[in-house]
TrEMBL record:
It is found in: Cytoplasm. It comes from Pontibacter aydingkolensis. The keyword Zinc-finger does not apply. This is Dephospho-CoA kinase. InterPro entries: Depp_CoAkinase, P-loop_NTPase.
Length: 200
């Protein structure tokens, strides 16, 4: 089975692109939502999180206290790296198990913001980078994340791998710059992946 990764920085529209593949009948693994699920449901990871951040990382009801965790890691690159080192291996295992559920499909898509940073690219055969110019991304994000300021968003973007590096490392680039239509780009890749699928 051909495995395709979709990545890009915050605000580029990678989720929109992934949704288009889903509409075409291709299973899509949403790394962000699956990471949240794993953090709530994987007992080994829950134990690791409590060991690392204390019992207060979960509420009395057993729910992950995302606000507390964010306050610990947001301004600390070391703590963020530590959190990712705990979570990413479990997400990789979850993805490997998920693949087995879709063995009848010609290809699958894995969407992840930190595809390169988490080494998740090693689990896929082809990579798509979704690109949008910085000013377009900021405009979209200010409309979507109304609680964040432009400075907040630029701080998040500055911590991510540059778009230039993502595009350089990707096999394919989809431009979601409000100038070019995205659907024809996705359809062209879909046909290409169907043609490649039998070789994997």
């Amino acid at each position: 089975m051909l495995k395709v990764g979709v990545t890009g920085g915050i605000g580029v529209g990678k989720t929109v692109v992934a949704r288009m593949f889903k509409v075409l009948g291709i299973p899509v693994y949403d790394s962000d939502s699956r990471a949240k699920w794993v953090m709530h449901n994987n007992e080994a990871l829950k134990t690791e999180l409590i060991t690392a951040y204390g019992a207060q990382v979960f509420t009395e009801q057993g729910q992950l206290d995302r606000g507390y965790l964010a306050s610990v890691v947001f301004n600390s690159p070391e703590q963020l790296k530590r959190l990712n080192s705990l979570v990413h291996p479990h997400v990789r295992n979850d993805f490997a198990n998920w693949i087995n559920l879709h063995a009848d499909k010609p290809y699958i898509v894995k969407e992840a913001a930190l595809m390169y940073e988490s080494e998740a690219w090693k689990q896929v055969d082809k990579m798509i980078a979704v690109y949008a110019p910085l000013e377009v991304r900021i405009k979209r994000l200010l409309m979507r994340d109304t609680h964040r300021t432009e400075a907040d968003l630029k701080a998040i973007i500055d911590r991510q791998l540059t778009e230039e590096e993502k595009m350089a490392r990707a096999d394919f680039v989809i431009k979601n710059d409000d100038q070019q239509m995205v659907i024809p780009q996705v359809l062209a890749l879909h046909e290409r992946f169907l043609g490649l699928a039998h070789t994997y």
